[in-house]
Amino acid sequence: KKDWRKTKPVKRTEKIIDAHNHLIISRNLGLLFEYNKEDFEKEVLMNQYAFSAAFSNTLSNAVKYASDGSVIKLVSHIDYDKSIYNFEIENMVQRPINVEDVLRKIKQGYTRKEIEDGVYYETNQGIGLEYVVNLLEKLGGEYELTSGNSFILQEEKTKGMKRKTYGVVTPEQYVPPLPSFYFKASIPIKEE
Questions:
Q1: pTM of the model
Q2: Contact 52, 74 (CB under 8 A)
Q3: Do 52 and 19 form a contact (C-beta atoms < 8 A)?
Q4: Angle, CA 178 vertex, CA 97 and CA 26 arms, to 5°
C-alpha cells in the first residue's frame, strides 16, 4: 500500500510515550506501558504516520482527562493471526463517559442546539476521538470504546508482558472508586 512503511510499532509507541512524558509528570500521573518482549524489535509494514497520529491523539486525551494522581494503563501487542497492531489504553476519569452519546456525535456530529449552547466548545468531548475513529475507519482498522465502573486491563491480561513505567507510579497505590475510560485501536499491518 502506498503510505505503508517498515515500522517497529512497539518501539514507535515507546517513542511517542517518551515525547508525552513531560505532560504525564506535569499532571502528577503515572503510566504503565506493557508489551510483549518479542514484539519490541519486530518490524512490520504499516501506515506509520496514521498510527502515530492516532496513538498520539489518544494518549494526549488520556493524559488530559485522567484523574489527578492516577495511573494510565497502556497495553500494546501485535496480533499476527489477524495482521493488526493493537493498543489499549485505560485511565480513571471523574465521571463515566456516555459512550452512546459520544459515538452519536462522532457519527452524526453535534446538534445545532449543542453548538449554539457552547457545549461543543466548552467540553471538546469527542473531537479528538472523532479524528482517531475516522482515521481508523479509513485505514481499515477497528476500535472499541467503553466507560464504566470496572477496569478491563486487569493484571491477568498482561501476565508475562514486559513493563515500563513513566511519571509517578508507586508500588502500592490507593485506587479511588472512580470510573474508567477504555479505548482499543486495531491498526492493519503486514509482515515482511
A1: 0.84
A2: no
A3: no
A4: 90
Residues 6+ apart with CB under 8 A from 112: none
Quote the CA–CA distance of 84 and 47 in Å, as a whole number. Answer: 12
Grouping H, G, I as helix, E, B as strand and the rest as coil, residue 144 is strand
Confidence class of residue 32 from pLDDT cuts 50, 70 and 90?
A: very high
pLDDT tens figures, 116-140? 776 555 555 566 777 888 889 888 9
Residue 91 to residue 77: CA distance in whole angstroms: 18
Q: What are phi and psi of 181, to 5 degrees?
A: -125, 125
Inter-residue contact 191 to 86 (CB < 8 Å)? no
d(CA 58, CA 75): 13
